[in-house]
RNA sequence: GCGGUUGUGGCGAAGUGGUUAACGCACCGGAUUGUGAUUCCGGCACUCGUGGGUUCAAUUCCCAUCAGCCGCCCCA
């Protein structure tokens, strides 16, 4: 019986994990500049939190949650996204009372959705997300969008398309909702089963349906932009103005509807063009959720955020052939010959490492030639050769791999010598 | 949940109803008793995802199952 990795998950092996570390570091640096602070919440929560927070008309809640009962009979769910958890923590820790508002948080961590795996879609995947709670200033919307665009830009991605829309405030949404129902209801039987469900629960999402995309009623459906009240219109205009001021290019797409129920006013997505993506074109999605904190039991608090997938980012980097500036290789590799030299290698390696050098040596009894090959493979800058001859004079032979030059250095000075060469 | 496609050594990849499963790369050893290239020589799959069936005989045919990849739905 062989064990296998669970479906839709992956091991991230060293070659890849270096990229992950680089990207995670970039996230921390970027968020620090924008003054967003990291929050770490559990990977599971009460099931009810997601049902209420994400919205029970969503696919996520209806068919994609990893839900289980613990031994105490509590229903728990592996988090399918990060916003609900963050908002729960905001409420539970009374962050609305913190001195600095809005509260600006970010997170990086695994999310879980039970889906058929395919390109750009895993059952466990990692999201980087940002949430700003406590301000209804359109400048925050622009800041959050700007942060996400900066992230991709600083990693070197191009051909990104930022799409924004406004779903309006409660009043605008309601008016639009009624208009949509009025528009589709007489002929709803011509639509797919999903859309017939959507008519009552969330008619907005009919516009998002790929199956019925070509139906004539789609093209003539009332646009949300025509139903925005004055507040929502002004708000959306300001967001656009700020984006333009920041030299961030975007398109307004009135059919952009985010799949989660909690969004209102600003919604946005970052898409990528080009071959190699199959069905996946959305790298990042986000929007404003002014009612969510209240829904989850907190005081009325506006909020906005986004989430993006590191896996999809890596795909994008791959497709655009962008190599991250990753440092690799050892400062030195110790090659020993003979029992005596082998015997002093633990002490020697430990001493070098204690002084901050990245060094390694042989542990499987390789012949000298094989040790040299290993040093070469592992991109050691120097090889330290230690045999009976050197040991007899308390020296060590050091060879610079790039030039082939070598010289003897007193054994007890070798660490300083290498450091002086860096 | 639905559909397509694939599943042979660490990786890539041939192959056939029948005594020993090509080849390439990588790796290990030797030629070269203390030096990373190249070359040459040698080594490296009781086994062809798993289970069952057909057959005198199956990696090769059939069924099931699992998994990967891709698409639909939906999303990050």
UniProtKB/TrEMBL annotation:
Pfam name, any one: HGTP_anticodon
Keyword annotations: Aminoacyl-tRNA synthetase, ATP-binding, Cytoplasm, Ligase, Nucleotide-binding, Protein biosynthesis
PROSITE patterns reported in the protein's UniProt record: AA_TRNA_LIGASE_II (PS50862)
Quaternary assembly: Homodimer.
Top EC class, one word: ligase
Entry keyword Disulfide bond: no
Residue span(s) of domain Aminoacyl-transfer RNA synthetases class-II family profile: 1-325
Molecular-function GO terms, alphabetical: ATP binding; catalytic activity, acting on a protein; histidine-tRNA ligase activity; transferase activity
Similarity comment text for this entry: Belongs to the class-II aminoacyl-tRNA synthetase family.
Localization (cell): Cytoplasm
Any coiled-coil regions, as ranges: none
Name recorded for this polypeptide: Histidine--tRNA ligase
Domain of life where this protein originates: Bacteria
Catalytic activity: tRNA(His) + L-histidine + ATP = L-histidyl-tRNA(His) + AMP + diphosphate + H(+)
Family matches, as InterPro entries: aa-tRNA-synth_II (IPR006195), aa-tRNA-synth_II/BPL/LPL (IPR045864), Anticodon-bd (IPR004154), Anticodon-bd_dom_sf (IPR036621), His-tRNA-ligase (IPR015807), HisRS-like_core (IPR041715), HisRS/HisZ (IPR004516), HisRS_anticodon (IPR033656)
Any one of the GO CC terms: cytoplasm
């Amino acid at each position: 019986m062989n064990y296998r990795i669970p479906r839709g998950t992956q091991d991230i092996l060293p070659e890849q994990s270096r990229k992950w570390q680089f990207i995670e570091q970039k996230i921390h640096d970027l968020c620090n500049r924008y003054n967003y602070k990291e929050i770490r919440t559990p990977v599971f929560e009460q099931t009810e939190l997601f049902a209420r927070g994400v919205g029970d008309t969503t696919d996520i809640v209806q068919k994609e949650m990893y839900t289980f009962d613990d031994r105490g009979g509590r229903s728990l769910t592996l988090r399918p996204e990060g916003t609900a958890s963050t908002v729960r923590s905001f409420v539970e820790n009374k962050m609305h009372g913190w001195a600095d508002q809005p509260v600006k948080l970010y997170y990086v961590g695994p999310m879980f959705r039970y889906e058929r795996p395919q390109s750009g879609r895993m059952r466990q995947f990692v999201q980087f997300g940002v949430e700003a709670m406590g301000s209804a200033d359109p400048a925050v919307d622009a800041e959050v969008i700007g942060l996400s665009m900066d992230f991709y830009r600083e990693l070197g991605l191009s051909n990104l398309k930022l799409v924004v829309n406004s779903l309006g405030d409660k009043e605008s949404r309601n008016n639009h909702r009624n208009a949509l129902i009025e528009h589709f209801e007489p002929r709803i039987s011509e639509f797919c089963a999903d859309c017939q469900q959507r008519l009552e629960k969330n008619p907005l999402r009919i516009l998002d349906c790929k199956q019925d995309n070509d139906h004539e009623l789609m093209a003539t459906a009332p646009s949300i932009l025509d139903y925005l009240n004055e507040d929502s219109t002004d708000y959306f205009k300001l967001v656009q103005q700020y984006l333009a001021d920041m030299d961030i290019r975007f398109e307004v797409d009135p059919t952009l509807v985010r799949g989660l129920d909690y969004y209102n006013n600003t919604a946005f997505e970052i898409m990528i063009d080009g071959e190699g993506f199959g069905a996946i074109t959305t790298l990042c999605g986000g929007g404003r959720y002014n009612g969510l904190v209240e829904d989850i039991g907190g005081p009325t608090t506006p909020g906005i955020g986004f989430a993006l997938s590191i896996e999809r980012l890596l795909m994008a980097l791959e497709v655009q052939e962008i190599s991250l500036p990753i440092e690799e290789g050892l400062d030195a590799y110790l090659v020993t010959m003979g029992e005596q030299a082998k015997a002093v290698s633990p002490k020697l390696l430990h001493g070098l490492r204690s002084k901050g050098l990245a060094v390694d040596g042989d542990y499987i009894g390789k012949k000298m030639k094989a040790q040299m090959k290993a040093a070469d493979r592992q991109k050691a800058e120097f090889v330290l050769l230690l045999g009976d001859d050197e040991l007899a004079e308390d020296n060590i032979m050091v060879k610079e791999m790039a030039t082939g030059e070598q010289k003897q250095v007193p054994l007890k000075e070798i660490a300083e010598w290498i450091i002086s060469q860096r």
